Amino acid sequence: MTVPNQLTLLRLALTPVAALLAASPDTAGRAWALGVFLVAMATDAVDGLVAKLPGQSSRLGLYLDPVVDKVILLTMFFVLAHLGLVPLWMALLMMAREFVVDGLRSAAATSAGRVVGANWMGKTKALLQTVCIALGLALGALDVEPATARAWVTGLTGATLALAWAFAAVFVWQNRSLLRG
Fold it and tell me: What residue segments make up the domains of the chain, in order of their start?
């Protein structure tokens, strides 16, 4: 198994750890959640760099990496919703956006035989989602007053959600030929 795939599986394994720690009743547990989440997301950056080295890219990694990215990010948005930092509908719309984009990617793979990889819009969206989640976890670790934390995290998540859907619309438009036939 390649190093990038091992890092991707580590990120997957860290997802429930970060989620459980985020629900901790004490600030130390929530601080650990932030640390675990940031380590997990750092593995995403590292596996991308390592995958560019000779012999480190794989067909499995091409599919596994984006799926695991969505698992951790969506899991943590649902954790933020559970903690009352974002409305549940925001987490659901984040998930729906991923289904739309991934559905079109699957259509490209099955009908056109082509892989539609991530572009700068997807990477920007993932970075902003990471910032939203990290902010929510950090405010929980700092024991910020709940209404203040909710306002900040919901505001940033709302802006990220709007941008994510705008990027999805561009992605669908760019790949509209797949919708015909």
Answer: 3-179
